[in-house]
## 1
Amino acid sequence: MIPQLVFYVFATVLLVSATMVITARNPVHSVLFLILGFFNAAGLFLVAGAEFLAMLLVIVYVGAVAVLFLFVVMMLDIDFTQMREGFQRYAPIGACVGGILFVELIMALGNWKMAPDTGLAPLSGAPGLTNTAALGTLIYTHYVLLFQACGLVLLVAMIGAIVLTLRQTNTGRRQNISKQHARTREDTLELVDLPLGENVLGNGGFLRPHNSYYEIAVPGSYGSGGQTEADEREKGA
Amino acid sequence: MAQFFYHTLIGQIILMVLETLAVLVPLLIGVAYLTLMERKVMAAMQMRRGPNVNGLFGLLQAFADAIKMIFKETVIPSGANRALFLFAPFLTFSLAMLAWAVIPTGNGLAVANINVGILYLLAISSLGVYGMLIAGWASNSKYAFLGGLRSAAQMVSYEVSIGLVIVSVLLAVGSLNLNDIVLAQRHVWFCLPMFPMFIVFFISALAETNRAPFDLPEGESELVAGFFVEYSSLAFGLFFLGEYANMILMSAMVSILFLGGWLPPLGIAPFTWLPGPIWLIFKILFCLFVFIWVRATFPRYRYDQLMRLGWKVFLPFSLIWMIATAGFLMATGLLPQTGGIN
């Protein structure tokens, strides 16, 4: 009885939070409800005895994917009045798309026939194996090529994202770490005796790095261009 | 009596509550004394006395701090999202407590000795980031928000190398059960054959718990106090407790994965007199001491250095080490075949 009860609790919260994802006004709340939904889906996996999938769902989706979602959504600057402005215009199109999907779903479900004996078939295919071991055997032994192909697709997507977002700018300063560590006190520090009442600006300015300052910057980043560029920036500031 | 506890529903529930309390009460007392230990150890390292007024050797200092914190006024910023603002500290605190369900303190002695224990730990520790992210956003303050973003980026980055280190340990164990991981170290603790992974894991644990030198999410010198700058009173206290409980949890993970968990250093007479939980506590205390030692020694990392260390040093290194471990185990025929028996 308790597994059924737990199932219905998880399923109810999952459905409610899934509804809240699309109805919540605030996008951050939407993402948080999405996370709650992921959690309850993981709970359903646990009830079904698939503890490995449950943990993986939490680690991958909640622990990584949703964090990045939240990360982006929190930084969006959303104007709610502007969002509602277009509602009249887009409502018919949205209703059309929704209606088509709904009809398709009804057609699909109407012709859905359950195989007569699935309800009775045992859930665990490999006796004596935990589902972690069973999944591992399947993925890494029997379907290893498909698994590698999936990885390749993800790699392409990742490289695409990097290519789209990587910009060469000289506003950031990137350092050559080994050169940075090899700097000594003599390379960086200069002690100046100032006569009383005189300003350091008259004696060469505050920014007076030795050449090691320019050497440690990665070519193309800020401060790698040599003495003159930095001097100009200082005067401009 | 045993009949009542094992075979009736109420008895089982009572037993479960008692088991949970048996873990949580020592944990919370441990957190209280960890704050004292941190102040005392750092004081000793900086040639100061540390707290020594409340009680003998300052032993009551933690309780004085707790009472002070409880009686302060809870201030909620006017622009804050109230519900999320109050939810974040509870989340951080309860996640830090939740993870302790699977930590084995003796042979099979855990509240829940589950098959995917290490994945459970990884899942719970990866959730810790939400407390900070939500706190940073709900405070409606730029410092808190920047702190939250930093913590999100930092924790996601270091989880990758933590995951790979755990995979290379699991290759040598052949099971995801924490109890099996400890038992696999009967002959030699994993910190000896996998010493570089031990170091990578420890440093990643520092980053994962936002401890110095990776405490950028709270970076006092640039972000005032980071993601909990707007918090006060009990809400702040919950963050504080959660952070220290996470430190103890990460130390327990280091002990279980690399220092043989509840196993004595050698399986011979004088060492086996002490029971398992005591050994685990000794190992956790050692790790915590190193946590504090690191804090007292190193200056804070710059943010780009932190990211570089995570992605360009630890990630390739632990990946190569994982492949090398798999290759070595395969070549020598030491790959465990026992895994997966339910």
## 2
Amino acid sequence: MKYTPTIGIECHVQLCTKTKLFSEVDNDARGKEPNSCVSPVDYALPGMLPRLNGEAVRLCILAGRAMNCEINAISRFDRKHYFYPDSPKGYQITQFYQPIIGAGFVELPSGTRVRINHAHLEGDAGKLTHFDTYSLVDFNRVDTPLIEIVSEPDIHSAHDAHDYAKELWRLMCHAGITYGDLYNGNMRFDVNVSIAPEGSDELGTRAEVKNLNSFRSVERAVEYEIKRQSKLLDAGEKVVQETRGWNDATGETTGQRSKEEAKDYRYMPEPDLPPLHLSNEFIETESKKLPMMPRDYREKFGGIIKEDILEILLDYPSLMIKLNEIDEKYITLVSNLFASVLLAEEKSAEYLNDLPTSKQLSDLAEMNDKKELSSTATKEVFLKMFDPQMKGKDAKAIAKELGVIQENDLGALEAIVDTVLKKPETQKAQEDFRNGEEKVIGFLVGQVMKESHGKANPSAVQEILRKKLS
Amino acid sequence: MEINCETIKHLADLSNFSVSDTQSKSLEKDLGEILKYISQLDEIDVDDVEPTYQVFEMENVWRADEILEQDATREELLALSKEQKDNQVKVPKVL
């Protein structure tokens, strides 16, 4: 039978604040010793009270605006109780009843719209590492600020699930609210998948696959679930509502042993944190700080940069900011240079961590425009701008050092042409050209290029040659 | 709400407590009486009253995003736990 899949995605985004959500300790625990970024508040010692990080509130406004969401004037915090060693408090502080970010939508590159139900601010849990007979707990991640973004079930294919996850990542990176480091779990996705017979008005029973940390695994997990659930229904069996784990190596989901009784988090208002009551003015002032979003770049550069190239470059917010600073007439050239580095040269994203300045790039484009650099030389100079030895030098200095500046001085070029025309090996070609053999001009240009050690501007050379031989 | 041995078991499971039958019996009685006492509040009509989330009328209490030196060290904090290993808190295996 044919089925229509329905998919909703929950995404946790780690905010890149300096300190944690409720304590004044370092929020960036990457590469740091376990339990080195902790405070008595994180340990939930008696009498310790949470103190809300105002920056997290500001980042929520940006995240919300990036997803075209309403920002709720009033929001509150609640306690979600559960007993597990990753949470010393015995509860998570979250926003269950009144989240800060309201409804909105994310538009995928394909034009599909996925509505956002809401997004709330909450603290992360600690990290557990399991061993044979015991587990170890690291509290560095306790109360790292997270935004949980809850989509409506508007996604109907594995491909769109992938694109939604990726577009969310881009939006959050462009908004500058997260480091967006997927490898380190800065964004984690939970997908809810159900299928129903085509044309049916009712949704099927859903299974939730938790903790996916790449776009590819989101896509593959959805593909697998659609197949698994279709097989069950075809065989007359039922889909069980459950949480499933994803195994990236086997490409399969497996049911996780779940307790028989339904979860009971006993939500209650958090008495230690006063509510947020944001004025319109505050929300508007903060919203204005939202940087250019992918949708803005698509609108601005749509006619200048080819769509497939733009979509690649949009993965790199700092690169887009740089492009935006460059004179419009140079955008095509510079965007092509970046795309060629990312594609043909197969450089990784790290290569782009430390970008040339917009002045370096504009100068380079200008030299190319003035024909001082051939296209090959332009790319050569561009690549050198990432070289630790050359970094920081301006385009002209690098071009000089490489000896690739084209000779455009007509007087100098004419002198070289004259030398070449005097050479015995060019005599026959000159005669042939005068007799109408057009294609030998290429040979003569080549000779001049050789004489100039590749620095002559070939189109200028050709012009001079034609004048002299007419 | 009636407190019976199932309710006690449910609550104990949620908090990972083990409760013996004798304890359960006495908890049933105690909790039942506490709930009965509290339920007197149900007699008050609060239909037109805004829920009270906070007793102080504070809002927008937040701090600057600046790292502050903590007065407790990692070692002092870790020492509060029953067992440690490799600078982490060691707990019975959980899955």
